[in-house]
Amino acid sequence: MGETLLTLAGIGSALAALAHVVCVIVGGPAYRLMGAGERMARAAEAGHWQPAAVTLAIASLLAVWAVLAFSGAGLLPLIPFTRPALVLISAVYLARGMAFPLLMPAFPDNSLRFWLVSSAMCLVLGGLHAWGVVLRWAAM
């Protein structure tokens, strides 16, 4: 069961990473669709480097998290410090999912849809990671 949960967590993180890369490729319309805010969309359309840099940094982090989840699930060779890394990833996802009311004022351009959807996804992914780690603890 823990393998399945961490596999699902890894797939979720990988899909989130892919969605971020697609935003960079598509540009402004994708940033708008994802609710990232008009300022980010316009900056991407104007060719500024910051939206792509921020988005690719997030995509890279999510991709690393996916690899760690797959490692914890036993789909990839065990990476050193996988267990504490997955505990930290779980905590970050859960904290991000719960803290959105506190984060909203810092990012006023982001849509309410963005906050609700991304926070729900973070809570689900955090729960999958946490539950998977608990069930796979001895194997890691």
Explain what the structure shows:
With 140 residues, the protein is mostly helical. The chain has one domain (2-139). It has 7 helices and no strands. Helix 4 (49-72) crosses helix 5 and helix 5 packs antiparallel against helix 7. The protein is elongated. The two termini are 14 Å apart.
Topology of this protein?
Blueprint (H helix, E strand, L loop, with lengths): L1 H25 L1 H6 L4 H8 L3 H24 L9 H17 L1 H4 L8 H25 L4
Helix pairs in contact: 1-4, 1-7, 3-4, 4-5, 5-7
Give the N-to-C terminal Cα separation.
14 Å
* Helix content, binned percent: over 70%
Domain count: the total is: 1
Written as H for each helix and E for each strand, in order along the chain, the element string is HHHHHHH
Rg computed from alpha carbons, rounded to a whole number of angstroms: 16 Å
Shape: elongated
Give the uncertain stretches in residue-range form. none
- For the report, how would you describe the main beta sheet? none
The computed structural class is: mainly alpha
Strand content: under 5%
Mean pLDDT: 95
Number of separate helices: 7
The tally of beta strands, per DSSP, is: 0
